[in-house]
Amino acid sequence: MSETADDGDAPTRVAIACQGGGSHTAFTAGVLKRLLRDWPDEYELVGISGTSGGAFNALAAWYGLVTADEDRAIELLDAIWEDLSASDLSDRFANDFVVGLSRLGSTGVPMPQISPYAIPGSEAGKDEIRDTLERHIEFEAIPDYCDREAPELVVGTVDINAGVFETFVDEQVTTDAVLASAAVPTLFEAVEIDGHRHWDGLFSQNPPIDDLMTVDADRKPDELWVIQINPQETEGEPTSLAEIADRRNELAGNISLNQELNVIRRVNEWIDAGHLPESDFSKTAIRRLSMGKSYHCSTKVDRRPSFIQELMALGEEQATSFLKSSELDESNYVTAEPRHKPSAQ
């Protein structure tokens, strides 16, 4: 994407981090489509990361860009989500059943707990995702496009044997790496990579940020755009079991994200205070692009085509507002965030 700004100055380097969240990440696809369609000339994309469904979007956008252009990236985002949608009759029935179970379970109704390892054919869903990805992405060719001029691609997982977060970067991104990032342990068996088993990246860096920041100085992003699925704030107090389950799900999905963003903010503060020399360290502005609308946590497994299209349309709408604000309102460029402190008694 953009190599130089219109006025000849160096472009502002941008990295995009795509949070995971099941079907809700169709919102991210809509955001990316809008950003790619009207990418500002003064910005250069230097990296994109994702976890779980966010990894699908990051991969599709990256692959389309490095193999062709923005139009190809948009086509891939549409094609992958069309294939992931529950479009035929049997798939729609299964989708409604899973969503119903998820919603019922969130109310506190006792539900049967069955390991995916004890269910015959439990890997069918994962195999379908594998087929979808490999239908549109030539994974063997990915290393051919991982040169210095291409944006960095990062996919997040968790290594359950070593007990550590693990990311796969550029040529390390394989079908198994992306499947591992989306392997929800209550639904899918773990994915083996290099002798270790991996689970859904929602349990790790959601989304990966550190890899986007620890690059050569001339590729380090000036701005980090976070496409956030889980709401950061909420009004009132969750009191029903369903409300509690919803908010717990949202908070869990944001823990690692906020930890990583706080590291960036702290570095920015140290640079402002003169503790770190600006000759060696640079500040990174953080901008969040959120859904701005809440959905029940059970809809994270809802693949109805109409719901997927609703989320993608919402993503395009939010991205439109985001692009306008980036042009007009520098107050969105957050370098530090005040912490809430209890008042003195």
From TrEMBL:
A GO BP entry: lipid metabolic process
Domain PNPLA: 16-213
Pfam families cross-referenced by the UniProt entry: Patatin
Domain of life (superkingdom): Archaea
InterPro entries xref list: Acyl_Trfase/lysoPLipase (IPR016035), PNPLA_dom (IPR002641)
Keywords recorded for this protein, A-Z: Lipid metabolism
PROSITE patterns named in the record: PNPLA
Positions of transmembrane segments: none
Region (Disordered): 323-345
Protein name according to UniProt: NTE family protein
Organism field: Natrinema salaciae
